[in-house]
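Hi C.,

You asked whether I'd gotten around to modeling the 426-residue construct. I have! Everything is below, sequence then structure, no commentary in between.
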Amino acid sequence: MRVLILGTGAKDHAIAWWFSRSNLISELFYAPGNLATSTIATNLPDVDPSDKEAVYEACLKHKIQHVFIGTEEPLLAGMIDFLQRKRINAFGAPIASLKLEGDRNFARAFTDRHNIPTPRRNLFESSQALRNFLMRHEGEHFVLKSNTIAPSRIMLDSSDANALISFAEDLFKLGPVLLEEHCAGLPITVTVFLDNNGYLALPFTSDYMYTSENEGVPTGGMGAICPIQLKPHLVSMIKEQIIEPTIYGLKVEQLSYKGVLTFSIIMKNDNPVLVDYHVRFNDPASQAIIPLIKTDVAEIMRAIEEDRVSSIELDVSTESSVAVVVASEGYPMKPVIGKDVKLEYPFLIHNLLHRNPLIFTGPIAGDDINHIKTNGGRCFTIVGRGKNIKSANEKVYRYIDSIKIDGSWYRKDIGYKFFLSENKED
């Protein structure tokens, strides 16, 4: 099997690493790729992953049999529809299904039709209408989001009406905004593979979305832990109230597709509430999930192609993982790029040894291991694996300072609340 992966971030590096471990893949290509992916795949640096014609030409040139898309830009460009018309197997959401993520108001109407629990919300098309509403509800806690896909999940979670109104000014440039009730509780990320007949759920994760504990600025994700140990009846509730009604809704509304769907869920008083759909893998949840899956990803792809993914028995490690993101100075508002990256250890061979943390690269630039610079916000994801969350956490934080970037930062509490609760149970 000859596979092309499209993407640029750390989650795409993690996906490529997963494919590189398959026994069924004869050659792996990555567009555009970077210094790290060159050790596990053939980079195609001149191929823009959102350029349909360029991707198609690369498929012909390299005799690609499957194209895997786990990130948003190629999907938004209509890559799936285009490649399928060209009779090339491509996994991901087509244009019709992108509305689940790209139009939150549509997604909320979809959940209403299928009785899926979501936060109370209002859609506003003008700043004056938003202002009038917030003045009537002064002091109440809301989450403000763009109705469309926005980079790094830009949102504001606040009870300050003036702050919400000010934050909305830039969001209105993208279109209407969605104002939702604040839901307090444990965040859960559920990722599933889809085909036309069913789904395969991957281990549940919990993401850390803010710059600091319980406060700070929302980000694209600063860390994740996997798996989340939920009581069986809570897992059943998530499946019965959110996952399965969604799968049914996709089928009856002719939105089913072969690819990935991610559910962002809040456990509010032990009741699951769907916060968002993502028609792709999430970052950094993916970096935490993928290292624990033993099943050959090519087997999963074949099952999706044949509409039998629900029959796959997923083989998952008994270990836990903790993923921590190293971000550039200024992230998430204005990340500083062009900073030198100094590595204490050769991370390009680091991922070959199980006892080491895994290193997945985000936006970095450079052709030489000794001359790397930052090129965006979330530059590296460090993933530790261990017998429990505590040991995985220790592996990450023992290693993380060996990546030296002037002004960089990371959260220092990823996984703490989970292994503290493990100790209490002991």
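If it helps when you're writing up: The longest strand covers residues 215-226.

Thanks,
B.
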